[in-house]
Amino acid sequence: MSTQNSEPEVPVRRLDRFLAFTALGIAAASVVCFFAIIIGTAVGMDQSAFGEGAWPFIAAIPYWGLPVAFLMILTLLIMSFVRKGRASTRS
Question: Residue 66 domain-assigned?
């Protein structure tokens, strides 16, 4: 037995896709960099090695990336709720 959804179908905008995929990419890069730091520490790198080369950049990605990805997902959810609310009041 099939039930029909009484809510109107809301199209996915380009901005929504951009926010979703960018947040996913930033979060994935943050997790990969986090594990790279854990592996580097487990292998025996000393603290002075993390201050040179690409390591400061690798350490900054999880520090800034995860909060930015969280804010992007939160923005996406708020935009989606507002758009669905407006679509349901028009019907």
Answer: yes
